[in-house]
Amino acid sequence: SRRDPIYLEAVFAAALLLPISAPSAGTLIPVVAFPNSTRTYAYGINNSNEITGTYRRSDGSQHGFVGTLDGQQYSSFDFGRGGNTYAFSISDDGYIVGEDGGPSADCPILGCQYLRKPTGEPHEILRNGKGIDGVHGQIINKQRFVGEYWTEDESENFFSNGYYGKKNSYVKDLTLPFSTQRVHPRGYNKQGDVAGNYLEPGVGSPGFVIHKGVATSVMFPDAN
Fold this sequence. Notes:
Elements: H1 5-8, E1 14-16, E2 27-29, E3 39-45, E4 50-56, E5 62-68, E6 75-77, E7 85-90, E8 96-100, E9 113-116, E10 122-124, E11 126-127, E12 130-131, E13 134-140, E14 144-152, E15 158-166, E16 169-174, E17 182-188, E18 194-199, E19 207-211, E20 214-218
Antiparallel strand pairs: 1-2, 3-4, 4-5, 5-6, 7-8, 8-9, 9-10, 11-12, 13-14, 14-15, 15-16, 17-18, 18-19, 19-20
């Protein structure tokens, strides 16, 4: 697989960090496994404690799921071209974004991205009339989200570009004022702030924060 290992890190339990001051610890709430699954991955949670993610069946297939944190209202869904479905983020108004879990003719690197409505219908996300090959970040209300689209050059070098999206459409590129080969937007809030990481050749993978339109590079640990 050509997937970014940062993006593929499996999450077996959702941790809710409550708004309490240090040195109090967060609260770990185990996620109920999807029925008859061999593995359950929780990737997204909203302020109503609805979660979304991916589960694996004994035949190896992977499917999206959504439901309440206690597992009592889970439902399964698919957006199928590559044979699997990944779900990564859920907004407070119930929209989900994710990707087809495998390459296809339209999206040959990672798979095409989709937006799922609260009523259950998945819609492919389009850029210039074509499916977007790449990975999703966070979705917030009014169907606004961030993500990345991947390209490959003639030497089989891979590049990812950040972007802003709305509904089932690409809106514009998310660019950083740094030397980058890959940009991975992950977090997004209603103020328009974005957080993520990027690949800088010869340096590694620093984080970034865009706040009020100004991008700052973040490296941990940092003496400052």
